[in-house]
């Protein structure tokens, strides 16, 4: 919760800090442990970052890995933690979940750092969901649908 609240305060996540509840964190960790993957970056006992996601439950979409969220503590951003977490996730998906062909995520258009990271990993923008995100500043921005084909 400390990590996600701090990351939410720095922007980029789909939740504001007061929407990072115990139920939210327990829920995604439970779902990732049950059916997907959660990876944490830890230094000196402190969680610096986390990434998680899981395959879609319906049989028609069982080859799609989604619901991905990644967060790095603001003071640890820009040091390669996010890249290491995402590379670890892709490596684990390809070895542990051989049915997965497609990894997908959403990212608001203003999150240049995240988009640069995803594109450098091979993700491409497949679509633009216009005015999907409402920002506290009082304006709407587009959400980008991005995907990486792994097989
Ligand atoms: C997006 C986020 C996960 C990236 O993690 P990070 O540890 O800061 O990123 P890294 O240090 O691994 O950098 C990865 C890439 O991001 C890009 N990047 C890093 N800093 C950047 C900056 N200031 N401006 C633009 N791009 C930048 C670069 O492409 C970098 O690649 P490089 O390793 O070749 O330099 C992290 O900033 C974060 O948690 N942000 C808040 C939550 C969030 O936005 N989550 C994603 C929601 S879609």
TrEMBL record:
Keywords: Acyltransferase, Transferase
Protein name: Acetyltransferase GNAT family protein
UniProt-listed PANTHER family: AMINOALKYLPHOSPHONATE N-ACETYLTRANSFERASE-RELATED, AMINOALKYLPHOSPHONATE N-ACETYLTRANSFERASE-RELATED-RELATED
Keyword Repeat carried by entry: no
Domain N-acetyltransferase: 2-151
Recorded superkingdom: Bacteria
UniProt key word tRNA-binding: no
TM region positions: none
Record-level Gene Ontology MF annotations: acyltransferase activity, transferring groups other than amino-acyl groups
